[in-house]
Predict the 3D structure of the following.
Amino acid sequence: MTEKERHIDVWDNCLRIIGDIIDPRQFATWFTQIRPISLEGSKLTVEVPSDFVREYIEETYLDVLRKTLRRVIGADARLIYYVKPVSKAPGMSFPAAPGTVQVNRAVSIPSYQPSGNPGPFVFPGVNRVQIDPRLKAEYRFETLVEGECNKMGIVAGGSIAAAPGKTSFNPLFLFAGPGLGKTHLAQAIGNAIKERFPELIVLYVSGNEFKTQYMDAVKRNMLTSFMAYYMKIDVLIVDDIHELKGQGSQNTFFNVFNHIHQSGGQLIFTSDRAPSDLQDFEERLLSRFKWGLNVELKKPDFKTRLGMLRARSFREGMSIPDDVLVHLATRIKTNFRELEGALISLMAHATIAGREITVALADQVVSDIVGEQQNDISLDGIVKTVCEYFNITRETLLSKTRKRQIVQARQIAMYECRNLLPGCSLATIGSTLGGKDHATVLHACNTVAALISTDKEIRRYVADLEEMLLVTVER
């Protein structure tokens, strides 16, 4: 068997296992029409005849597929679907769904009569309760894009997921502005823990929900049962902990914190500010927030924003030109949430209205979402940065020389001017870059845009320059 045939052998092994598990008629209907395409490391790509087939297999046989792939390929096995193109439509790739969230095992919760705290001779009843972890399946480490903005949080989260409650990162306190990935990272840790330690009870709740539950328990005279419920938790994730206002709810949470921490459980919190900046919190609670690791998630840099857009468009099965993604990553600098909103809106325009995905359409979508933004990048700034990057003088860049390296640098400079300065005319760009006419500038921009999708070196040049220019602006 050659290396090129290995994917066929791996898929044949998977089919033998699946064929022994599911109904033969179902197997013949759904699995015999799947064809293996490639195997890269632990990533197996298979072709399915339609998106309907992909969705049905995902809904019906996801667990069987995941377990079989892990058995044949290993624990890191990943499945990619390639939907066979119809007529002239391009084929699309979809990663397999992340799977469902592991359910918590049922636990026994004492149930007291609503007559205040029970005395020593009051015997409670016992309820069998299955606590919903309330985690989203799509919030996983695999769907996080790592960058300098979140690297420390991801590394710490990975350590916690490998040994919950046993690291010095307890509690883990993640803080950042809105849309910077706090909830995603916190839930990714929870999902990873549930996969590795299914026996642990994991619960995700917001600070406001905890406060509301506490107030309801007090109103119904069931505070003892409320406390018994939370003291069954092994891993407690509290999102937006800054919303936990009120002396009563904070005092109750203080006791829950102490119990989980002393019992070897794991605590994970997110907030829109650092513990030292929280207002109206008991000092003893604030001191406990500082016991473990405090991590700030910062605004994503250009490279991370672009990586997130590429990853999300891949997960959606959409092929979006790289120059369009670069444009989105350039225009939207604040957070991941706005980036995702712009990307989803762009895909909606393309699929529902049948419009071609272009930089012009992306610019329209961005303007609708975030409005026009002041761009501090200038023509002279781009020219200067391109010269520094390629180690040439301004005079050389603007000269009439036809040397390939200089022509390439000049064309990239024109592309960057048009991409980063959408209000700047082609004539102005041409005048600045050696007195070229608008047709020459348009040709240069189209050439670079085409090369970005096929030439790794050009793609790296453009990405590096974008990052240099945007870092300068964002400082």
The first strand starts at residue 35 and ends at 40.
